[in-house]
Amino acid sequence: MARAGLTTDRVTLAGAELADEVGFDRLTMSAVARRLGVKDASLYAHVRGLEDLRGRIALLAADEKSVRIAEATAGLAGRDALVAYATAYRDYAREHPGRYMATQIPTEIDPELLAAARGPRRAIELTYGMLRAYALGEPDLTDAVRLLRSMLHGFISLEAAGGFAHSRPAEESWSRCLDALHTLLERWPAEHEPHGEGDRT
Amino acid sequence: MARAGLTTDRVTLAGAELADEVGFDRLTMSAVARRLGVKDASLYAHVRGLEDLRGRIALLAADEKSVRIAEATAGLAGRDALVAYATAYRDYAREHPGRYMATQIPTEIDPELLAAARGPRRAIELTYGMLRAYALGEPDLTDAVRLLRSMLHGFISLEAAGGFAHSRPAEESWSRCLDALHTLLERWPAEHEPHGEGDRT
DNA sequence: GACAGAAGCTAATGGGATTAGTTACATTCT
DNA sequence: AGAATGTAACTAATCCCATTAGCTTCTGTC
C-alpha cells in the first residue's frame, strides 16, 4: 500500500534492467511488476501495455547509445573516431544486451513518442558526422553509413548469438574488421562498370 | 478425428510458414495447432514444446538457405560468386522473414539435433569456399568470413526492421555495398601499424 | 480378429496480459 | 483542521497460451 512512486520512466527503467538480465524476448509485465514490488495491473497506469513498454525501452536504448557514442567520439576524427564510435557501440550492446535487442526488433512504436525521441535522430547525425572525415559525396556517403551500420550491427548480433566459433577470438576479428572498414572508407570504390552477364537491375 | 497425418517435419513446416506470416516472435503452439486443424496438445507428440519447435525451424531455415546459396553460386567465382551468394542470402531472408529471424535468435537447440543438421556446417563451408577465390591466408580468411557474414546479416536485419530511411532505395545501397565488399576482399589490408593521433590528412 | 503402438483427444493446471471497478493516499482549497 | 479531488495502486475477472496426464481410436500386423 505504501506508494511505490511509480512513473513511466521508472517502469521503463525497470523493464530495461530486466530485459538486460533475462533477455528482451522474455520480458514480461508480471516480472516488471514483481521487480517493482507492485501488482501487474498497477503498471497499466504508466505504460499502455507490453508493446508500449518495449517501444519505450527501445527509445531509451537509442538515447543512451547515442550519448555514449557522442562522448566517445568527441573531438576525434578519421580512424580514431571510427574506432571510438564502433567500440562505444559494441560496448553498449554488450553491457545492455536486452536494451540493444530492443532497438533491433521491428516493433511498432507510438509515432508521437518516436517524434519526441532524440536518440534515433542523433544516432544518424553522429554517424554522418563521423564519416564526414572520409570525404565521400552523396550518394556514396549514405551507402557508407548503411554499410557501417550493417557491419556493426551484424557483428554484434552474431557475436551475441554465439555465431562465431571459438577458433579465433572475436576481439581480434573485431579489430581487423575495423581496420578493413577504415581502409575501405578511405578508398571507396567508384561506381563499377557492368561486368559479365549478371545485370542486377 | 480423421488423422491429420502429423509428423515432426509437418509440424515444423507449419510453424515455419506461420512464422513467416506473423513473425517469429509471435509464433505460438496454439496457432500452429489451429493451422493444422488439431488440438494444441496433439503437437506435443511431435515436438517437445515451443522452444524445440523454434529450434527446429531455425535448423530448417539453415538447411534451406544453404541449399539456395549452393545452387546460386555453383560454378561461379570471384565477384560473380560473391554477388550470387549475397543475393541468394538476401532473397531467402526476404521470402522467409520468420525463418530467417529464427536463425538469428540465440536459442537453445537440442545438441543432438544440431549435430545431425547439415545446414549450419554447410553454410560455413560455402562461405569459406566462396572466399577462397580472394586468396586470403589465415587468420585473415576467418576475419573476412566474419566481416562478410556481419555485413549481410546486418544489412538484412536493418532493412527488415525498417532501419533505412527512404531517401535512397535500399536496392542501390545493397549493390554498392557489395561492390565495396568485393574491393575490400581483393585488397585486404595488412595488419595495421600503430598509428599516432589519427592524422592521415 | 486381437494386439501393439501411435495419433489425436479431453481435461486440468498455471502463467501472463489486460480491463473494470474499487480503495486509499496526497494535495489543495477553504 | 476538514472536505474535495485526482491519482496510485489494488482486487477481481477474463482470455489466451504452454504444458502435462490420462484416455480413446485408428492402423497395420500376425
Automatic annotation (TrEMBL), chains A, B:
Protein name (Swiss-Prot/TrEMBL): TetR/AcrR family transcriptional regulator
Binding region for DNA: 28-47
Record flagged with keyword Cytoplasm: no
Domain HTH tetR-type: 5-65
Xref: PROSITE patterns: HTH_TETR_2 (PS50977)
InterPro entries with a match to the protein in the record: Homeodomain-like_sf, HTH_TetR, MT1864/Rv1816-like_C, Tet_transcr_reg_TetR-rel_C_sf
Keywords: DNA-binding, Transcription, Transcription regulation
Domain of life: Bacteria
Biological source species: Streptosporangium jomthongense
